[in-house]
Amino acid sequence: MKTVSALIPLLALAAAAQAPLQGKVTVRHLAASNSNSADVVVWLTADNGDNSLPSPAPAFRMAQRDKRFTPHLLVVPLGATVAFPNFDPFFHNVFSLGEARPFDLGLYQAGGSRSQQFTRPGPSFVFCNLHPQMSAVILTVPSRWYAVSDASGAYRLDALPAGAYHLHVWYEHAQAAELAQLEQAITVAPGATVPPLEIHEVAAAAAHKNKYGKDYDTAKGYGPGGGDVKEW
Ligand SMILES: [Cu+2]
């Protein structure tokens, strides 16, 4: 009988080790009719310091298709490498002047792909030096536990070891101060929930500059072929 009774706490521990964490965030948009609460990033860091990253790191990809980066938002754990394949029949470029780490992958055409490793936490705003309408963001988080909200604002983190964590929140169109205020201590245990989060959209920044820090030369007209390769 001793064996059976000893098993019970072990089973309870096993269940606790996989506690999912669910929550909901509401984005208050400038346009009150907009109720889309997608693309809020939530991640946890363990208070015990066990924030070891997945090994090997999963493969990540941000495609260039129809003069867009897809997905627009990509979350990766620290140290991840992202591939940027070009599926359009003309040239694209990938560059970032962001805080996390500036980079420039040069110019390459259909079928080509270049990669970049992300070794600092924070957002990298990604652009193409040929097409000003192309923009994306890669958020590097120092954790393997992260999720992105769906349109209803719901998010879910699975395979979380039970314990004490800090929850962090990021949204492309929010003020850094508000996001910092949302950081909070949480305990992961069976049935645990996160209090509802609320984020207020702020006005979009002015048009971004090209990789030289200048305005895009829209008068030049890149034409149906897309790429003005002479500049390169
Ligand atoms: Cu482009």
At a glance:
The chain has 232 residues and is mainly β.
How would you characterize the overall build of this protein?
With 232 residues, this protein is mostly beta strands. The chain folds into two domains: 93 residues, Carboxypeptidase-like, regulatory domain (Immunoglobulin-like, Sandwich); 90 residues, Cupredoxins -  blue copper proteins (Immunoglobulin-like, Sandwich), CATH 2.60.40. It contains two helices and 17 strands. The strands form five sheets. The chain has a five-stranded mixed beta sheet with strand order 6-12-11-8-9, with no helix packed on it. It has a four-stranded antiparallel beta sheet with strand order 13-2-15-16. The longest helix is centred in the first third of the chain and has 15 residues. Copper (II) ion binds next to loops.
Radius of gyration, in Å, reads 21 Å
Instruction: Describe the strand arrangement of the main beta sheet, using strand numbers.
Output: 6-12-11-8-9
Low-confidence stretches: 1-8, 10-16, 221-232
Query: What is the CATH T-level topology of the largest domain?
Result: Immunoglobulin-like
The ordered H/E elements are HEEEEEEEEEEEEEEEHEE
Largest sheet: 5 strands, mixed
The helix count comes to 2
Structural class: mainly beta
Overall mean confidence score, pLDDT: 86
Give the proportion of residues in helices: under 10%
Ligand identities: copper (II) ion
What is the fourth-level CATH superfamily of the largest domain? Carboxypeptidase-like, regulatory domain
Number of strands: 17
**Approximately what portion of the residues adopt beta-strand conformation?**
35-45%
Distance between the termini: 77 Å
Could you say how many structural domains there are in total?
2
Shape: globular
